[in-house]
């Protein structure tokens, strides 16, 4: 029978040390580490799961695998038996997170937020186990807070400390405007931790100020302060810039399996190991063993294929990952996939259509100017032959038109 002393100051077991190692895997910071170790030990001694919080604002309709770095950490902690809380910031999205911004973030409509929230929920459950996830919306307590409660909350933090935040500090000294409502964002995010009584909150490195606000407010409200765990921002396909749709170096988690698989294989050998640490569910021991094999002469492509199949299977299925591998192999040998879009186009004057218009009208290029650029780069094939003449006209008939390694269409001109 456990005594009060056993539970309040329990020993650190091997299992707790393993949980600590899993917590630290790939993370940027875990603060304070000694507090988290105590929480893990106390949880094991009492049998009470810890409350693991992650909040995401539904600012866009979908997410890419860079967003799943933090979700993966949630899943690792979930698999240790702890209670994960996936918080959708439907209220805080109305304010707009100023983190890393040099201008005020434009607000979304409530309709946009609701639609995006549904998409986020569906996509997050491709990583988290929905049966073991507490799904919450911060409008539950934020709406109920009211004006009186908001004034009391605002009184628990000073303007001077708020201005220590890097983005506010830089905007102020650059003469850029800061709206009063932006000061409310970190307060409301911190209050989420009070409402949920979280033991640890996860986020990207750009969220550190907001996460620390949660610790401060929990102390103000008489709660044990949460720990914070920040994860790095994942580099995109180029291996340089952080993954971003605007930089077109991303993999969307709703992309088709063939595209997802091929994009993972396109990353550098060096970047592959960082992706293994942040995206794979393999143990670090397995990853280190695989890295040693590659260092001893094994083809790094073997390891990259394993990673591509793991990621593709997570968001599709094992069968889809196998099919994507077969499709990639077929294409690398110059083959044509079994299933490609069928397009029917009307031939122009003289019963023919210029290759630029063929590419544009079949959806293989966004414009004729882009089509010409692709031809100049040697990236266009018709029936497996490289097109070098931008003035090429295709006569009536059926052709397999290819752009790059992954875009195909069977075009019929009539």
CATH fold naming of the largest domain? Rossmann fold
Largest sheet: 6 strands, mixed
Structural class: alpha/beta
Average pLDDT figure: 89
Globular, elongated, flat, extended or rod-shaped: what is the shape? globular
- Write down the CATH class of the largest domain: Alpha Beta
Query: Which residues sit in consecutive blocks of at least 5 with pLDDT less than 50?
Result: 1-5
Number of domains: 3
Q: In percent terms, what proportion of residues is strand?
A: 5-15%
Q: Please provide the count of β strands.
A: 13
Distance between the termini: 84 Å
The DSSP helix count reads 18
Multimeric organization: single chain
Whole-angstrom Rg: 26 Å
Task: Write a brief caption for the model.
The chain is of the alpha/beta class and 414 residues long.
Commentary on this structure:
With about 425 residues, this protein is of the alpha/beta class. It has helices spanning about 5-10, 15-25, 35-45, 70-80, 90-95, 110-125, 140-155, 160, 165-175, 180-195, 210-220, 255-265, 270-280, 285-295, 300-315, 320-330, 355-360, 370-375, and strands spanning about 30, 50-55, 85-90, 135, 200-205, 225-230, 340-345, 350-355, 380, 385, 395, 395-405, 405-414. The strands form three sheets. Strands 1-6-5-2-3-4 form a six-stranded mixed sheet, with helices on both faces. It has a five-stranded mixed sheet with strand order 7-13-12-9-10. A two-stranded antiparallel ribbon has the order 8-11. Helix 11 links the parallel strand 5 and strand 6 (about 225-230). The chain has three domains: about 5-230, 3-Layer(aba) Sandwich (Rossmann fold); about 255-330, Orthogonal Bundle (Tyrosyl-Transfer RNA Synthetase); about 340-414, Structural Genomics Hypothetical 15.5 Kd Protein In mrcA-pckA Intergenic Region, Chain A. It is globular.
